[in-house]
Amino acid sequence: MTNANEYFDLWLKAQNQALEAMKENTERMTALFQGKAQTSDNPFEMWQKATMDAVYSGTNNEAIKETLAKTFNNTNAFQKLYDVWQPLIKAIQSKSVNQENYKDLVKPDAIKGMIDQLFNFDADYLMQLQKQLAETANFSGNAAKPWMDATFNNMQLFPKLADGQPDTLIKMFQNVYSAFNQSVGSNANMPAVGKDREKAELLGQCIQDLSGYAAKNAEMQHTLYLTGLNAMENVVKVLADKVENGEEEFKFEAFFDLWIDTNEKTYYALFQTQEYAKLKGDVLEAGLKARQGYTKLMESVLCDLPIALRSEMDDLYKTVYELRKKVKMLEKKIKEPKV
Amino acid sequence: MTTLKPMFDAKAAMKELGEFNSRMIKGAELLSEIDEIDVGTTPKELVYEEDKLKLYRYKGNGSNKCRTPVLIVYALVNRQYMLDLQPDRSFIKNLLDQGLDIYIIDWGYPTPMDRYLSMDDYINGYINNCVDEIRQQSGSNKVSLMGICQGGTFSTIYSALHPEKVKNLVTLVAPFDFESNEALLFNWSKHMNIDALVDNYGVVPGDLMNIGFLMLMPFNLNIKKYIDMLKIIEDKDKLMNFLRMEKWIFDSPGQAGECLRQFVKDCYQGNKLIKGELVVGDKKVNLKNINMPLLNIYASADHLVPPAATKPLNDQVGTDDKTLYEFQGGHIGVFVGSRSQKELAPAIFTWLNDRDADKKSESNKVKKNK
Known about the structure:
The structure holds two protein chains of two kinds.
Chain A: H1 4-25, H2 27-36, H3 43-58, H4 62-93, H5 102-105, H6 108-118, H7 123-137, H8 145-162, H9 167-185, H10 194-244, H11 252-271, H12 274-302, H13 310-335
Chain B: H1 10-33, E1 44-50, E2 53-58, E3 70-73, H2 91-98, E4 102-106, H3 119-138, E5 143-148, H4 150-161, E6 166-172, H5 184-189, H6 194-201, E7 203-204, H7 206-214, H8 218-232, H9 236-250, E8 255-256, H10 257-269, H11 272-275, E9 279-280, E10 283-284, E11 294-299, H12 307-310, H13 313-316, E12 322-327, H14 333-336, H15 338-354, H16 359-362
Parallel strand pairs in B: 3-4, 3-5, 5-6, 6-11, 11-12
Antiparallel strand pairs in B: 1-2, 2-4, 7-8, 9-10
Helix pairs in contact in B: 2-15, 3-4, 3-10, 6-10
């Protein structure tokens, strides 16, 4: 067998066989595997989920659960790296690895997948926020709908922006302009009144802040993707050197160590720059601004209900803090020996 | 263009990956058998409580060679049981066995109600109350302070504000000069809008802080560490130690907002402590007031608090009895490494014991006010 894919298939089959053996030995795992076996197309994912479920059900210790979750998530990155490595193996087998064509051997999508996982770039998170805002917008009448649609459309464009497609910005602007025309463009001078106006303004601000955050986040993602690709190019260069030097034994684990070390060094160089530190600060600030706006919006929606709002609780906490401090001071005075 | 000869053995590579997965299966089984991760097992008793703070005294072997009690002040970030993480490599147990009388502050977990706690409350309030309590309970006029990381900065500020109560000051891997950008945390903090962070959260979540720490070495701390764990997963002792460290790393209390605001603004961003411009409560912190003996310990490979942030303290204090101690290792290795047990803990004891010569004159000076 000379084809790497054949070996991979064989390995997957072997994994399945190992799982079958485990089924017979462990009742708990048997049940879980039987329950999951027909729902997944990917044997590794199936195995991973079933194993994780089995162990989760067997421990109540939160620290172990957390460690397991991290181990499984990050060993998944290990597997993903294997996907990156595969074209390299093929290229070497076909005698086409050299320092000139290494860029062609790196799969940007696979690198992006690993970076997304490592830096917790979760596209669903922004979508969920957008959905929450959409639900909130129901309190604010139909004027908000075009803006919500525009935001939703723009959210979907952010990954492209992160990938460095410049025409994305034009599309985003078109979406916002269209929303303006449909909502307030025709009667821009007509002021809304009362609480509804306040909510609509807050909502508009929220959308703007969220878009600002998503844009900054996209900028950071783009920077990190480029750094990841740069690191991978460095890895392949080192690899090509080793091949050129006739190194005979090269294991995947060694490749993994090389990949980790090279990435850590390449990212560290980026992290040390003032530009990155500023960008990181900007992303945090934009995220916090969006969060603060959302909190305000929530308070404006909830203020008529008989519940304590966060800002009211903060006032209460301050009063309690000041009173407690005063009591402590008085207690100390009482204990002090009288002259 | 050079064409290269084939060198990869695909079959071996598949086997390697297969073995890796087998280890994962075995590891998962072993993990499921572990019910409890024991940390902080050295016996201790609760001697004082205030709000969420608890002050403990460790139960030693009864022969305190140093009469002056030692108060350990740990950082607000993470938990103090790092010093007593593994029963076989406990920094605390080691110091106890040497002959120190040790007290330790457990800061607890701040809740939203604690958002207004300031540096003044922590230093002139909690630490001062603990020091007074120990003085009263032990009968010693002064205590030795041992501050760790941020707790070292706080202990130093306390010693400058209340020198009459501090016999010796020991600081471990603590930042004092924040000018350097050698460590990423210092560089990143300078661009952080701390007002926005504190105004938003009140008590800044520990998880948020943790993400920042993990991003300092993202590939090693998020991926390699767990892959490496699978290499030792069949060794239960090593696995337990790994889990203890994991438990500690992710057991991160939230940060009381006002305290964090001042610490980041005045220290990380303004570098006011070393410049002599820091004000805590209503008093300016003058490092020249540190007239007691100082042992300042730094780690040569510290990626969180670089030596450049630690060493300048010795040039600023008023005392002539000052020692700078380099520990070859990283920020955490200071407490859990084997060399820490063999070298550092005995060195700290010896240094304190040497300065405990006037022990008789220091004891029984405190009038009990009960």
